[in-house]
Amino acid sequence: MPYDCPYYCLCLACNTIPEVDLSLWRSRSYKKQFQFADDITDTCHRVGTVFVVNQGIPKETIEEAFEWTRKLNHLTPKRKMLALQSLHPPGPSLHRGSSRPPKDPLPGFKEFATGFSKQLLEIGENLRRAIAVGLGLEEYDWFLENEFFSRYHTGVNDQLRFLRYRPVEVERGEVARMPAYSNWGTFTMMFQDRRGGLQVEDRDRKGGFVDVKPRMNVLVMSVGDSLMRWSNDYLRSNLHRMTLSFTSQDGGRRLRGGQKKITDYFTANPLMTRSRYAISYFFCATPDAEIECLPTCVEKGKRPRYPPVTQEEYEKMRARGNHAGGEEEYGKLRARGQYQ
Length: 340
Hints:
Strand order of the largest sheet: 1-2-7-4-11-3
Strand content: 15-25%
Number of helices: 9
Shape: globular
Largest sheet: 6 strands, mixed
Number of strands: 13
């Protein structure tokens, strides 16, 4: 398993994010499959975020996805909502009272997004199975087939988002676009553009964050809070944030000594960040899924850290916590190992 870190430390001490090779899992070699399962599970335990190379989606498809992302996010808000409704119709009453449906504001987008979502869902299924094997769940075939995958992860609660981070005015000393947060689902996969900006928490350095450097055609996979809870905190759901892309590698011109011009990152007078695009796929269990400690993640004679809760109940609790307690209160809950 390749790392930038020469010590194979699988941590953020060397300011790097580890990577795993999904082609090992797709091979016919049990040895390679178990190697991949061990690698990704160990990385999710120590770091919580990992690069996934050889994920199976062609480079041209990913480039087309970013082109659709730009087109979608340059529509007017009303036309953008119509384009997104074509992906997720709100029900049979969508066109009630009209003799014909509204004109498609972005022809071809629905067909592409539907196919792209299926590709990401397939990758997610492979990652989930590998993590289950890495956690020792191959001994619990009933759980693998009936609960964690087939029943609880059908794709019905997943979300595919084509994101644009709009230009913002730069204030002196400002680093992040928004406060650090974690995702509530099972895990998240993301493609970044060349400007990057994603950072993850370094839990070994208080208040420290590490850049997730943009790598084209490489997935960034991050453990979500539900999977952390399922694993009894063995797998780490890291806080992450979006920065103003000061360290972005966007291919801009460089000054002598390798330094980039500030205009490569900002538009001038007043200083504004450039637009940033990303594509995220959120893997979530079905609303009725029971998030309960996995049988291999608790020692005999000890109680799990969390009581069982459904995915729907958990999301409601997290939403209430975000509105009522804010980031400071959530930080206290994380420090105590409590997410209720």
